[in-house]
Write a structure and sequence with these properties.
alpha/beta
């Protein structure tokens, strides 16, 4: 931490401008050495950037100075905004490397220093990583909400309440021989029970992690119903091979898309049937595994393929078996299989009416929403499929409350929240309630688990893993 670090914080070459950031005790000396002057704090100044030994001008650019502690890292910081030339950058990097106690930054090291300086907590650092990686507007909004401290405020409020419980537990031990009012003990027990309910409700809320990682939508059905054509039509790209021969798709293909601001991973898979080879059978096995992993399934049938309804029934049953243990209201099974009748363009009016009746009967029998009729080959009504996917995602995500409260975004949050709930429940099992010595120890363990989320306890391993995902200049 005593070394001054630097890194390029902008994109590749060539570009209009490249930004180099510095942070550390030698920053002021380095800026004076290369520019001959120090700009006013937080004001951009046009300066000649020179080699202090050879005295030649490397570039003319903007220089900014951020004295400690009012900087991102809490240390002295500066930025050089130079022309986006590889030659300019190579020379500037060589000059900075030649300075005493100055080196190139490691991935995420600027944010790590900001964390140690108390400028950001662990959840805000994670949100910063999510913002850098955001691919959709809703991901950007969610990351900004977390960066403003929404998640930290929730966790910190819980930590304060657990500390209050611990204070009561320890105080009751100090006055163990006094007769404490039973109403007071019951009040604290109620306080802990209320806290447990809030924590467990948050544990079951998957909105945050789904927003960060995206939703998985898979395409299933019998061979030759047009699954790969639907896949290509939704992605607006010829990603999957389309051919009339059964067994063309044998592995799971994936493509990313943005539906109403949500990140969606669309998956094409092998047709469901009795397979003629071990390779096709493996493709079928992977297809059914994909059903189990998916948030939403697109079940495809077409009027020119036999056994299409049986294959779709297998998909519905497999999906429901896999998701039957999900919590009510967070990931219900109804509506999460969308029935799509493909190749509607080859049906005449009478044929269309017959298939519409079959599709409605199937959906009613399996408690599914109304079917969609499309022609993927002719790109007819494909947008209706995107619209239905968006509707189902919004049901999963409970859009009406998405930005008014917070939800955990990483698996480690859920793990530690489960520890908090478990330790608090354990505290209530002792004979003296929360006033016993064993209960006080359980409350301490709950407090420690909460501290691990926000970064006040055991953070080094988490920091190493987190900041390895950052770009070098952040």
């Amino acid at each position: 931490m005593r070394e001054t670090i630097f890194a390029q914080s902008s994109g590749g070459f060539p570009s209009g401008v490249s930004v180099v950031r510095l942070s550390g005790a030698q920053t002021e000396h380095i800026v004076r050495s290369l520019c001959g002057t120090l700009p006013p704090p937080r004001h951009a100044r046009l300066c000649k950037i020179c080699d202090p030994i050879q005295k030649d001008v490397i570039d003319i650019g903007l220089v900014l100075w951020f004295p400690a502690p009012k900087s991102f890292t809490g240390e002295d910081m500066a930025e050089f905004h130079v022309h986006g030339s590889m030659a300019v950058m190579d020379r500037l990097v060589a000059l900075l490397c030649a300075q005493r106690h100055c080196r190139m930054a490691e991935a995420g090291e600027f944010t790590r220093r900001a964390f140690y300086a108390g400028k950001v907590d662990m959840t805000q650092a994670e949100a910063m990583a999510d913002l850098i990686m955001a691919r959709t507007e809703r991901q950007r909004q969610w990351a900004m909400h977390q960066m403003r401290g929404g998640l930290y405020k929730r966790y910190e409020a819980w930590r304060e309440r657990i500390m209050s419980v611990l204070a009561w537990s320890e105080a009751s031990l100090d006055f163990a021989y006094d007769d404490l009012p039973a109403s007071m003990t019951q009040r604290w027990i109620g306080h802990v029970e209320s806290l447990i309910r809030e924590v467990e409700k948050t544990i079951h809320d998957v909105r945050g992690v789904k927003m960060r990682e995206g939703f998985r939508v898979s395409i299933h059905g019998a061979p030759n119903v047009g699954k790969s054509s639907v896949f290509n039509a939704l992605l607006r790209d010829e990603r999957a091979i389309v051919y009339h021969e059964a067994g063309t798709t044998r592995d799971v293909l994936e493509g990313a898309m943005d539906i109403q601001g949500y990140l969606v991973t669309l998956c094409d898979s092998a047709g469901i049937r009795d397979y003629e080879s071990h390779v096709e059978a493996e493709g079928g096995r992977r297809s059914m595994e994909e059903v189990k992993k998916s948030d939403i399934c697109l079940g495809i049938v077409s009027c020119d393929v036999r056994h299409a309804w049986q294959a779709l029934s297998d998909v519905v049953n497999s999906y429901r078996d896999a998701h039957s243990d999900m919590h009510e209201g967070l990931h219900g099974t109804n509506d999460k299989v969308i029935v799509i009748v493909n190749k509607a363009d080859i049906m005449d009016a009478g044929h269309h009416a017959l298939w519409a009746e079959k599709a409605r009967h199937f959906c009613a029998e399996h408690d599914l929403s109304s079917p969609l009729f499309i022609s993927a080959k002719r790109d007819h009504d494909v947008l209706s499929v995107q619209g239905r996917i968006g509707e189902e995602i919004m049901k999963i995500h409970r859009e009406d409350s998405a930005m008014t409260d917070v939800a955990w975004t990483r698996t480690r949050h859920r793990h530690h929240l489960e520890e908090v709930a478990r330790h608090l429940r354990s505290a209530l099992t002792h004979d003296d309630g929360v006033g016993s010595e064993m209960a006080a120890e359980d409350v301490r363990l709950a407090l420690s688990s909460m501290g691990r989320i926000v970064g006040t306890v055991d953070v080094e391993a988490v920091l190493d893993r987190l900041f390895s995902t950052f770009c070098i200049g952040k």
